[in-house]
Amino acid sequence: MPTRVAHVQVAECRVLEPGLLWLRLRAPDVAASLRPGQFIAVVARERLDPYLPTPLFPTHLSQDDIGCLAQMGERERWLATLAEGRAVQITGPLGNGFALNGKGRNLLVVSEGLDGLPLLPLVQEAAGRRLEISALTWSPFSRAGLLPPGLLPSSAEYRSAVGAEALAAALDETLRWADAVYAAGSPALYLALAEAIQRVRLRYARGFCQVLVRRAMACGLGVCGQCRMRLKRGSALVCTDGPVFDLRDVV
Amino acid sequence: MRMNEATKVSINLSVELAPGHKIGLLLTTPILLGCGAAGYGDAPDVVDASALGAVITLPLASRAGGALPRLAPVPGGVVMDGGGPAAVRAVLRHWAERWRRANPPVIAHVAGDSPADLAACAEALEEVREVAALEWRADSLPPDDAASIAARLRAASDKPLLVQIPLAGAPAYAEALVGVADALVVGAPPRGTAWSEEGGWVRGDVHGAGVFPMVLDALHALRECPLPLVAFGGILLPEQAVQALLAGACAVMLDIAICRAPELPSEALEAIIREMENRALDDVRQLVGREAR
Fold first, then answer.
1. Could you tell me if B197 and B204 are in contact, meaning their C-beta atoms sit under 8 angstroms apart?
2. Among A52, A229, A238, which would you mutate to test the B interface (most chain B Cβ atoms within 10 Å of its Cβ)?
3. In order along chain A (251 residues), what is the average pLDDT of each group of 10 residues?
4. Same domain, residue pair A8 and A63
5. Which residues of chain B have a CB within 8 Å of the CB of A50?
């Protein structure tokens, strides 16, 4: 679906806990065409701060609404001030999202804490197709900030791991079973994932593991070049070539 | 020429940015997308390309620069370090075919570490017919040095040359560049430093609402300049495009602000047309500099 600019209404806006925002936008023109892993850029034109649109990854998609459960950094903080009924401008869908591999029945979804929130619509879609889902949430240091199991469909198996060794052990166990892997987190997670895949499966085909890469973005449209990142060969723009990449291109 | 739907009177929105050049640079509208607002010469799909007179590419150089870009949002703006330029040959491999189909015309922003690098980049673009002109940024050099490098670029290329000059001290640059540049872009974004949310300082171009008054100030200071002027920086509102023309700019170049307002190019053009109607003008050139006093 082509990217479009829409002027939409805030249907719901709540700070669930410090640093975690729930925003629901009534946006029928864009919601129906968003794929898991794609994002939108939100701006209020009459405000000068923030100057750049805020990229947001939808976590709950329906025909008419875009729901975003988002960690609040500097760029997201203003969203918490939006009153219900307020109009904002969104641009979307932006970027390339996750693709569910048609042949895969067993999906391993790996999330580094709440960085994995953009994986939620993918998990919902997979559950709707009655695929087997194992959701592994990982934190390098503590259990605080792990993706809560209540956000996942009941049909998904939930695992958690804290620390590098626990991650390696959990991956070794689940990668044998998985037909496809989807991940969202830091470069450290992707490195551990690549090493585990090579350890367990020796080799893996392109498309086996898709990862979501985050980098500070300015335009979201591929015109400013600010989100350029290095790939194993060459470079790419996170906003238009990604944000979902094949793990083989990233690590 | 465009038809005013209300009055059925045709109006001329085209501007010539290189009147002293043998080929010239005739644009169908006075709205351009500046470097960093149009990728490598491709207006984003959400922008109405028919409102645009030209698009400027991201920086191209004879060799790719290694640094990755970084940005730091600040209240009311953003500091952007664009990273290293792209290698012109690589860009040509990927984009020359798209430029062939491009509408509007493409202006290549050339960069380089030395005059020889710049000349090599310009030479690489010389045979690319789809590149209508070159743009070069002169803000890190004293005016006379900038003029001598612009002359070197001029010798390396037959294409019209636009030079971005700094907002501070613009008249000295304009004086040095008369006879060398075909048009001046007023101006190069001011430099700034900000702390990045990802950690570390970001040093680079400042974009934001506060830049536009500086652009207007520089345009007023350049009212006697014989070269065509292009206003660049801080244009967020359609009426600011009109103000820039009234202050003496022949055209306006929009920056990263178009990601806030993808409709800005068409809104700016509509505002210019409205202003022409209010003043009973049928040629946009009659609007240029009318209030430059």
1. no
2. A52
3. 91 93 95 95 91 96 94 92 95 94 88 95 94 94 88 92 94 94 96 94 88 94 93 92 96 91
4. yes
5. 73
